[in-house]
């Protein structure tokens, strides 16, 4: 719940759009107002409140607030800013810095009047994403990032490994998995990243390399040695033929003992927000389609044929087109029988999914990695029961954050009828799912999860992590147009 805004507002009265916007009473909060909370794209929130102290629950207009960010000490400020209207009376403001600054001035106005305590002065130095300037004290970084003290999924995953012997796993894991699987063997030593790859298909290492390099630019990582599975399926069986081995994977299952990380898709969207990606946990919040009452009441799904149940879903759609609109955008795994599964349809923007009130989430090869973005919309998610899970699934509650349906789809129609007959309850489930995504799946939460995972895993090591034969150093990117000066390194050098 760390993303929630001040409790006095959360419990306060609400205003329909139409009340007079009060600059003084409107609220501004979030990690993007803290100089130390370095993220690829920093962000904060603005909540519209009227003169009576009632918060808006629908948009006061997408241009209600103007945000300007400048570096008072500099001739130019290289900061990209976007104000995203979440259509519920609140706005998400995100900004990406392309250089580091001694201080930043954030002005938030409505008309010519400052909002809340604007202007906000961030006293630096304030480092941009590519600045290699790690906080030496992990406890200080965890506090700056407002990370939770413990994360239940990490505790569950690591409970299987009372101790970790880097010397032992460095031999045994490549022998057991290295010939058939795509693996990365990583060592972080003195805050430098080293890698050795196994298998043919190791292109997905770019996502793991990127998050590790980003972390080491921000905080001094513990010395740690570990293996990452680059494939879709979890590797370590619940009851392995020999001793249990710690394998880090992007997806877990109830039939395996892999250590789960945020998916490569979610990780990449955090690192490339306001950059290479258009779909991320922030952009989706400003593109949630029509209001609940104005959404199309057909259930919606698009995707490829990566699981048998997806074929069944499309067949259901052909039988009940007034209830379900499901179609394939690509055929790859199964023979395409157009008489059964219809013609392949064109891809549509993910944001257009939210024109529909009911979103069907069904496994692909493993868990469907779109779930974070579906939850962040304001449609209700119907989620297939599954053995597979992402790092946050175990914190989700059926009937609170989503509507469950059986893995064989046998009760999907029944659940859709329930949702249609209980519209207010379905709307509340959609709202709860959205709040969960907003408060648990943003960039700072993902960075916290990775760091806590490696920190706690490192504490289980009983021998020294080593840079093994065949490992190569993963270099930090050197194409930064505006190199920074790290005050921490300068102070250290002067000692």
Automatic annotation (TrEMBL):
Keyword Heme set for record: no
Pfam family membership, one: Glyco_transf_90
Key word Signal present: yes
SMART domains, A to Z: CAP10, IG_FLMN
Pathway annotation from the record: Protein modification; protein glycosylation
One GO molecular-function entry: UDP-glucosyltransferase activity
GO cellular component, one term: nucleoplasm
Domain Glycosyl transferase CAP10, chain residue ranges per copy: 220-464
Signal peptide: 1-16
Top-rank taxon, per record: Eukaryota
Filamin repeats: 18-124
Keywords from the UniProt entry: Endoplasmic reticulum, Glycoprotein, Glycosyltransferase, Signal, Transferase
Reactions catalysed, as given in the entry: L-seryl-[EGF-like domain protein] + UDP-alpha-D-xylose = 3-O-(beta-D-xylosyl)-L-seryl-[EGF-like domain protein] + UDP + H(+); L-seryl-[EGF-like domain protein] + UDP-alpha-D-glucose = 3-O-(beta-D-glucosyl)-L-seryl-[EGF-like domain protein] + UDP + H(+)
Protein family according to the UniProt entry: Belongs to the KDELC family.
Alphabetical list of PANTHER family matching this protein: KDEL LYS-ASP-GLU-LEU CONTAINING - RELATED, PROTEIN O-GLUCOSYLTRANSFERASE 2
Protein name: Protein O-glucosyltransferase 2
High-level lineage: Eukaryota, Metazoa, Chordata, Craniata, Vertebrata
The gene coding this protein: POGLUT2
